[in-house]
Amino acid sequence: MGKMNKVIKGEVLKAHNDYRKKHGVPPLKLCKKLNRGAQLYAEELATTRVLKHSSESANGKCGENLAWASYDQSGKDVADRWYSEIKNYSFQNPGFSSGTGHFTAMVWKNTKKMGVGKASASDGSTFVVARYDPAGNVVNPGYYEENVLPPRK
Q1: The pLDDT of residue 2
Q2: I want to staple 128 with a disulfide (CB 3.0 to 4.6 A). Which of 25, 44, 67, 136 is the partner?
Q3: 130 burial type by CB count under 10 A (0-12 exposed, 13-18 middle, 19+ buried)
Q4: CB atoms within 10 A of CB 20
């Protein structure tokens, strides 16, 4: 279990930082505390098999992205799926929308650290949790313009 998680953390982090570079924002660093929280929550999701956000993220203590797949998903696969929401994001009309929340969390300029957890359910499906600090996606006007920058040509 430990080894798989080391691999996925590296994959998720690298994919985030490759995408962040495209948007001209600083790279994220992995944080032990966020990794721990993300891992515990991934294990909880794998037990309940209900994909819902944690109370920590609801309280604004951290940003959070979740992914479920019926198979053993790679970190790159998860990050690419989250990032693909860029096609629904309007840089002309910035702000929060449920269809672009994963994307905006990934490239949020002011986020510095992340944590990653992954767990498998008994049916072979997998849950991946990413946690972000400081939390992005603040639902206030002005924040999105400053933090979600268009990709550089």
Answers
A1: 56
A2: 67
A3: buried
A4: 19
